[in-house]
């Protein structure tokens, strides 16, 4: 397995992993050709446009301008699934500090990062380039990540390395505050009571990914982050001034330009499901570049540990007939998993039951929260003979026109 002429894919991945130095380690060693497992074979679409602009929403005077802001959020979430926020209450110093903390973590000597290096999706605090088993059909992304998972808003601070501990803890305090504001505003934008999403605890856990994209010697052959949509309720991102993030909108790849002081909000696919397609979760990607290092930090919000086992479909409070079937968040996330190991796999053939142990639950949820950078078009292992690649959202639709083998109702 794995030999293509004199090329051994597995060996190359294994050798890379053994260095525990990530993409930055490759660059520091002076590579001029990227390893093949980073090469994206798909046609790089050239239909990028810069004229289109994703909405920028000003949160200034939220109390007096609330209706106007709710309306802007509703429109942006319905048509773009992305918007930038300014005057959102997170101080510039805290945003600068998290980017600096991200940089400090990744730029410390490899020996200091190594103890956190892990492809094990189970670890709550980890440094990685590839998580779990990389699929041959998918290219690795040209970036390193350091991630911390806060289940129900909590993570033991001592688990975070001192080099970026204060920066992460301080940033997360503001992320949770902003989450409360956004949760209220999104509830109102859906026409629900202000406290609806908050009471449901749909955004109560977080995973913070501190991302480092070194310059790439062959940027046209790979991506900083492969295209994907987030299986979250909501993602909030801070990016430096390098650029490279693009979203798929109306068949174009549209740049998300850096705006000093702005944070980016991104509707996740779980929000699309509970909102019955009212709000859209869109694909996005990051281009690799030949010069400059991009740094960003993405905070992924998803339901509380209590909530993730409860079946949940499009909210009954929203009037339209439900497009999606009921699914627990855990099952939903499982639909987004490309591949899971036998021991804690939960598939649509073996739906969740009360007998799922807490250990399994923790394992699967941690596995997900660490696996956000896999492309979102995995085929759920419903029928291993079916080669069709469908998105998780398609699988969960109540009425699917064809492919009876893939129906799960
Ligand atoms: O902007 C970035 O650096 C990547 C973030 C990302 O892919 C995400 O928010 O899911």
Automatic annotation (TrEMBL):
Q: Which PROSITE patterns match?
A: FE2OG_OXY
What this protein is called in its record is Fe2OG dioxygenase domain-containing protein
- Is Metal-binding one of the keywords? yes
InterPro entries to which the protein is assigned, alphabetical: DIOX_N, IPNS-like_FE2OG_OXY, IPNS-like_sf, Oxoglu/Fe-dep_dioxygenase_dom
Q: Where is the signal peptide?
A: none
As for family, the record states:
Belongs to the iron/ascorbate-dependent oxidoreductase family.
**Keywords tagged on the record:** Iron, Metal-binding, Oxidoreductase, Vitamin C
One term of GO molecular function:
2-oxoglutarate-dependent dioxygenase activity
Organism listed in the record: Fraxinus pennsylvanica
A Pfam family assignment: DIOX_N
Q: Which GO terms describe its biological process?
A: coumarin biosynthetic process; response to molecule of fungal origin
Gene3D superfamilies under this entry? B-lactam Antibiotic, Isopenicillin N Synthase, Chain (2.60.120.330)
Taxonomic superkingdom: Eukaryota
Annotated Fe2OG dioxygenase domain ranges read: 204-303
């Amino acid at each position: 397995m794995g030999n293509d002429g004199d090329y051994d894919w597995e060996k190359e991945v294994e050798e890379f992993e053994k260095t525990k130095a990530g993409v930055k380690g490759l660059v520091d060693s002076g590579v001029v050709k990227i390893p093949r497992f980073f090469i994206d074979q798909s046609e790089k679409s050239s239909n990028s446009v810069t004229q289109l602009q994703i909405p920028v929403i000003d949160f200034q005077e939220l109390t007096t301008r609330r209706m106007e802001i709710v309306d802007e959020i509703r429109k942006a979430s319905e048509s773009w699934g992305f918007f930038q926020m300014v005057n959102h209450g997170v101080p510039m110093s805290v945003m600068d500090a998290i980017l600096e903390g991200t940089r400090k973590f990744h730029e410390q000597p490899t020996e200091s990062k190594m103890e956190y290096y892990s492809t094990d999706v189970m670890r709550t605090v980890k440094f990685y380039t590839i998580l779990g088993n990389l699929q041959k059909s998918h290219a690795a992304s040209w970036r390193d990540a350091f991630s911390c998972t806060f289940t129900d808003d909590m993570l033991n601070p001592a688990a975070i390395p001192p080099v970026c501990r204060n920066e992460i803890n301080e940033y997360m305090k503001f992320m949770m505050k902003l989450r409360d504001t956004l949760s209220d505003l999104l509830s109102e934008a859906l026409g629900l009571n202000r406290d609806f999403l908050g009471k449901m605890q749909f955004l109560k856990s977080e995973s913070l990914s501190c991302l480092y994209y070194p310059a790439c010697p062959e940027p046209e052959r790979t991506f900083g982050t492969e295209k994907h949509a987030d299986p979250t309720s909501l993602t909030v991102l801070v990016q430096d001034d390098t650029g490279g993030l693009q979203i798929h909108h109306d068949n174009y790849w549209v740049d998300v330009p850096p705006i000093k002081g702005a944070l980016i909000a991104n509707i996740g696919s779980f929000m699309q499901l509970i909102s019955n397609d009212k709000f859209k979760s869109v694909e996005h990607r990051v281009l690799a570049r030949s010069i400059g290092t991009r740094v960003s930090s993405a905070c992924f919000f998803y339901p509380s540990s209590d909530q993730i086992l409860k079946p949940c479909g499009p909210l009954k409070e929203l009037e339209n007939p439900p497009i999606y079937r009921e699914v627990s968040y855990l099952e939903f996330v499982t639909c987004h998993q490309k591949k899971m190991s036998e021991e804690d796999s939960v598939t649509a053939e073996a739906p969740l039951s009360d007998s799922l142990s807490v250990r399994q639950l923790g394992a699967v949820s941690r596995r997900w929260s660490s696996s956000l950078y896999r492309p979102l078009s995995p085929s759920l292992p419903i029928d291993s003979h079916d080669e069709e690649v469908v998105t998780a959202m398609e699988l969960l639709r109540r009425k699917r026109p064809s492919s009876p083998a893939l129906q799960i109702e």
